[in-house]
Structure formats: C-alpha cells, structure tokens
Specification:
Elements (H helix, E strand, L loop, with lengths): L14 H9 L4 H20 L4 H13 L8 H10 L6 H5 L5 H13 L4 H8 L10 H12 L5 H12 L25 H18 L6 H18 L1
C-alpha cells in the first residue's frame, strides 16, 4: 500500500514502522496481544470486503491501538487533560479507560498521524461511540477477538458475526481463497452488540465501574440490530 495516497497518513508511517513504534512501548505480553489484534483485524477487513485503503487503515489502527495501554492511570489522566479532554469524575478515578483517546493523541504527536478515521478507531476501541465507522467497528471487534481472549468470551462474538457456523467458514482457516459466493456473510453490527453485552456482563460480574458511554453504545447497536430484524 502506498500511504501517500491516504490523506493524513505520513509517507514514512508504514505498517512496519507503526509496529516497531508501538511494540517498543509495551511489554512482551501486550505485544503478543497487539499482534493477535492485527491478525484478526486484517482477517475481518477482508471478510467485510473493505477496499485496500480501508484495510490499511484497519491494520494501522490495530497496531497502534494499545500503545498507551500500560501507562499508569495518573499519567493517562494528566495526558488527557493536557490535550483538552474534559473528564468526568469516573474517568479521573479510572484512568485506564482513557488509553484509547490518549493513544490517539500520542500517535498524532509522535507519528504525525492526522487521519481522523484512524485516530477515531484508536480512540474508540475500548468504549465505542455513536456512530462508528466500519473501520472503528472492526478494530473494536479485533480487540475482542484476539485469540488470547477466553474462548467462552470470543465464541459468542464470532457467532454474532458469522451466525451459528461460528469460525468454521473464516477465510483465515483455509489457505485457499474462497470464491466470492462462498465467503461468509458478516454482520458487524450484530457482533458489536454481542461484544458490548459480553463486556458489560464482565464489568458487572467483576464489580467494576461502568462508563455511561458503553451503555449508550450498546443501546445504539441494539437499535440498529432490532431495526434490521423487522
């Protein structure tokens, strides 16, 4: 991919450069997660039949999404406020929720990345947003579907995406490229709803704070799915 063709992405910001920059900032365990998210994001972008530019943006956002994940909560709060975010008391007390937006700020500052679609995908990968681009949705789902996640968490999301056939028809499971009519039909919005339901259930079960945006985003996708079923 010639990144010169994509507005807001510096020519030198190749996927290799993004990978090296991001992985230098995280632990080995986190680096493995980033590699897994990148792999799934690339697969989902192909399954969703995104064009080549959009696929590049998915891969770039996947590689950069957790660059600030291991910052301390206090550092995330300070950086968010430094970049003009107006934080709620919940966000100040749970700074880890800010690693997406802060990651977008840092990528803009350090890498010269100004493509708003990619920056939003980085920013929105934890809490989501209303609405979200297909690129943001795929990065969000890739983060949920990394193979290091528990099987009982990822399986319902794959089923929401592909139907009851789950992962059997995934293009990445067969080295032969399937014909267009044989490729699995993906329901990204339904998968988002399943992922958000699962995330909320986990937060409740572990007695963690729920960010109000997560509820709003879940209800937003519930509305989309219900409308599509009528």
């Amino acid at each position: 991919m010639n990144v010169k063709a994509i507005s807001g992405i510096p020519e030198n910001l190749t996927l290799d450069h993004a990978r090296d920059w991001a992985l230098a900032r995280v632990s080995k365990k986190r680096a493995d997660h980033v590699a897994g998210v990148h792999k799934v994001g690339r697969e989902l972008a192909e399954m969703a039949e995104l064009d080549s530019e959009s696929r590049f943006m998915v891969e770039l956002a996947c590689l950069l999404h957790d660059a600030c994940k291991e910052y301390k909560d206090t550092q995330l709060v300070a950086l968010a406020e430094e970049h003009g975010m107006h934080l709620t008391e919940l966000e100040k007390a749970n700074g880890h929720l800010l690693h997406g937006p802060v990651g977008a700020f840092v990528a803009r500052q350090d890498l010269g990345l100004t493509n708003e679609t990619v920056l939003r995908a980085i920013s929105e990968h934890t809490l989501g947003n209303c609405p979200m681009s297909d690129i943001s949705k795929i990065v969000f789902l890739a983060d949920c579907l990394d193979e290091t996640r528990p099987r009982d968490y990822t399986k319902p999301i794959w089923q929401g995406l592909l139907g009851k056939g789950e992962k059997k028809k995934r293009s990445g499971d067969d080295k032969r490229k399937p014909a267009a009519e044989d490729r699995p039909q993906v329901n990204i919005d339904n998968a988002m709803l399943v992922a958000l339901d699962s995330s909320l259930a986990y937060v409740i079960e572990t007695r963690r704070a729920i960010h109000p945006r997560t509820v709003d985003v879940r209800n937003y996708f519930l509305g989309i799915v219900r409308a599509s079923e009528k």
